[in-house]
Amino acid sequence: MAEMESLLARQPTEGVKPVRRDYTKLRKKFSQLFNAQQRYVNKWKHLRDYQLPFIGQFDGEEDQSEPYNGKILNPVAWESCQIFASGVMSGLTPPSRKWFKLTMENIDVAANSQVAELLDEREEILYAVLAKSNFYSVVHQVYMELPMGQAPMGIFADSESGVRFTSYPIGTYAISTNSKEIVNIFGRKYKMTVDQIVEQFGYENCPDNIKNIYDNGNSLQQSFTVNWLVEPNKDRKDKLGRRNMPYSSIYWVEGSNSDEVLYHGGFEEWPIPIARHTSMDLNGYGKGAAWFAQPDSQMLQKLEFDYLTAVELGVKPPMQAPSDVISTVNLYPGGITEIEGQHKVEPMFAVQSNLQDIQNKIAVTEDSIKRAYSADLFLMLDQIDKGQMTAREVMERTQEKLQQLGPVVERLLSEFLNPIIERVYAVLDRAGVFPPVEDEELLDQLNGQEVKIEYISPLAQAQKMSSLVNIEQYFAFIMSLAQANPNIVNKFNFEEAANTYGVNLGVPAKIIRSDDEYQEILAQQAQAQAEQEQQQQLMQAAQLAPGMAQAAKQATDAANDGNPALQSWLGMDGV
């Protein structure tokens, strides 16, 4: 398989130093991008501190062994986040089953069995490449960060697995959108050692300070901040080459001269789809389950603190003792304290906390947080994947919840999964992975036609189940009417119902016959039935022939014997 782009889209031309140009304007845009991002950083930190202590990397934080959970006494939000990520994983992109299928936008072309089989073949290749790559591990990390509002994932060509995926922690990147609210600018800051920079970008492309450190050899592990910007290539010319692709990709060391870059290349497609939970403005950043659960999460930590305080007061209440023995009071179990006279060592006051009320409020708050993360729904969807519950049962029990989650699912499909499949498909196509189409007639039919992606994952099916239930209910209604009027069955289009039901269930194209094949089979069956009826008629005639001949002979003999009636019937009068 040809390597179209490296893991980080870097392919410096051997021995060729890029033509120097001034990147001052680009660097200003990069700075403005991160200045706009700063408005969200404090909020993201707040969400991490009270809910998701292992998510995010802010202000150049390098020590990820330090969990930011000092304010968390009840981890239900983190547990709900794990359920959310696993639920989206099994509901939208389950590794153990198919979750998308390829078809054509043109219905007539899609009905062609050859086209369907071709798409099925390419679909199998896509699944094999995704399984071989690190897609499923990285996409799970994306879903873990999605409650923060958004999570990006980079897609790059790879010589070993075909494609390679990368996730980016919140706080390390900044994004922006165009006027259509589509994310089309991505900036990232991250640390790399001198050794890593030289290895990845090439010695000849490094700024002088990096070269000097590398030549010296004493500080190869010294870290520098590398900046990366991907944006639409407005300087694109009608030429070939990595600098004339639809999207530009530029790397440079922070603090280097304005004409020094590590790499200037590009991409044919947008390489970093952004999964967004909910978007409410044009700046690109989203809001997710953690935003919605934040008030309850803060209250929950306060309730948990009060509950633990009340328990501790009950177990270890404040004590009072005579001043002359206060320093010698033994509060250990079984301890003895000597006291003179009537003095006592006893609690200062009786603790009368109603722990049950606090526990009830904690339980209510926990449920509210779980609902914000849709944990209840995703636990139920998991039962579909395990075969414990059908999609219809889930829809009937959680129809209202599915309706609330519907916009989030649609956004993930259109903004995240669609670009992923399209990008992977294009990378594999350019690399020549797909078998060529040898049928010229089929090739002409496919020319200029758009491939459509349909989703058949458990969550997508649960969303579609309403249409399937409508079909079943209408059919049951027609059959009930047919008891009084059998002709009403003709109102039901059985062929179209079978097609619609099969498509919504994601049945493989090889299993569903095309309309032409179906009509041909009906014609063959009708012809076979007609031939069978004709054969039966001939057989019946052959069986009746001996009896008719015998009857004719007997009638003739009787007429010859002088039976006037038979002679008249046989026209033998006067014989």
The helix tally amounts to 16
Q: What do the pLDDT scores average to? A: 83
Radius of gyration: 38 Å
Shape: flat
Distance between the termini: 101 Å
Strand content: 5-15%
β-strand number: 12
Structural class: alpha+beta
What is the spatial order of strands in the main beta sheet? Answer: 4-5-6-7-8
Protein name: Portal protein
Keywords: Viral genome packaging, Viral release from host cell
Subcellular location: Virion
Organism: Veillonella parvula (Staphylococcus parvulus)
Written description of the protein model:
- This protein has a domain at 516-569.
- Mean pLDDT is 83; it is low at 1-18.
- Strand 2 (150-158) and strand 3 (162-167) form a beta hairpin.
- Helices cover 50% and strands 12% of the residues.
- It is flat and about 145 Å long.
- It is α+β, with helices and mostly antiparallel strands and 575 residues long.
- The strands form 4 sheets. A 5-stranded antiparallel beta sheet has the order 4-5-6-7-8. It has a 3-stranded antiparallel beta sheet with strand order 3-2-9, with helices on one face. Strands 1-12 form a two-stranded antiparallel sheet.
